[in-house]
Design goal:
12 helices; 8% strand; two-stranded antiparallel ribbon; 3-stranded antiparallel β-sheet; mainly alpha
């Protein structure tokens, strides 16, 4: 149900490391000629070099200042695994990723996010302004079915007194939640399909149930489990800060953070072939664009 995140670069780091380890040696032998480590390294550097050197450099610099443990990565990994359910392996395969390479990408993304959060203004003035339109997380359960007729059938059974959780186990096609009665993790604005989010937030009281709602995934019937409870700024401040920080993890803000990290780290590229690898972060690209 959550919006799919870009899974990132295809990580062929193991091959890249193999090719970079020492000169000479054959990787592939054929009757028509051999492929050497040097040839593999040069080919991969030409195609992927800039992206890899960026990630490796930033990960090294960020890891010196911010901590992302294996436990943190495993937790985030399991969230994705739960989110996609039986489709998880297929999603990884379609993106050219293995579980190991995806975890590597997750760690890098989490480091960039920590750096972005650290560079975000979270003063009371900023948070109080954000609080004016902030909405707390809510918790709902849902039943997902493929078509409107099936949704109406479920809706009628609910009206006749059937229990929501029982119908979720019987009818829902969301394999990640059906055995738990359709219950979803708490979420806030911007985290779900817009139509789903609008219908969920329209339910004001615990136990309220929506009419069938159509989204890109099918038809949902939603039950409110824990409504939004907005109190005062001081009481809600922790949740407000967490929500605000999440809202600031935009591509633009993360790019600005990496530009600052690059400048502060005094990066020097020694390989002439990769001299332009950091042009997106050193200001040269924007200078070039403005001169056109």
């Amino acid at each position: 149900m959550k919006k799919k995140l870009i899974l990132g670069l295809v990580m062929v780091m193991a091959l890249f490391s193999l090719a970079a380890c020492g000169g000479g040696g054959d990787v592939v032998k054929t009757d028509s000629g051999d492929v050497t480590k040097d040839e593999l390294y040069d080919a991969m550097k030409d195609k992927y070099g800039s992206e890899f050197v960026q990630q490796l450099t930033f990960e090294k610099v960020l890891s010196d200042k911010y901590k992302v443990s294996d436990e943190d990565v495993d937790k985030k990994f399991n969230e994705y695994k739960s989110q996609y359910g039986d489709q998880f392996s297929a999603v990884l395969a379609q993106s050219g990723l293995t579980e190991k390479s995806f975890k590597s990408q997750l760690k890098y993304n989490m480091l960039v996010q920590k750096a972005t959060e650290a560079n975000t203004d979270t003063s009371d003035k900023v948070l109080k302004d954000y609080y004016k339109t902030w909405q707390p997380d809510i918790t709902v359960s849902h039943i997902l079915v493929a078509d409107e007729n099936k949704a109406k059938e479920v809706e009628q059974k609910l009206k006749d007194g059937a229990k929501f959780a029982d119908l979720a186990k019987e009818y829902s096609t969301d394999t990640a939640t059906k055995e738990n009665g359709g219950k979803l993790e708490p979420f806030g604005p911007g985290k779900m399909d817009p139509a789903f989010e609008k219908a969920a937030y329209a339910l004001k009281n615990k136990g309220d149930i929506s009419a069938p709602i159509k989204t890109q995934y099918g038809y949902h019937i939603i039950q409110m489990d824990e409504p939004a409870t907005k109190t005062t700024f001081e009481k809600d401040k922790k949740a407000v800060k967490e929500s605000y920080l999440q809202s600031q993890l935009t591509t633009e803000n993360m790019q600005k953070t990496l530009e600052k990290v690059y400048k502060d780290a005094k990066v020097e590229v020694k390989d002439e072939d990769l001299k332009d690898a950091f042009k997106d972060f050193d200001g040269s690209k924007s200078d070039s664009d403005s001169s056109k």
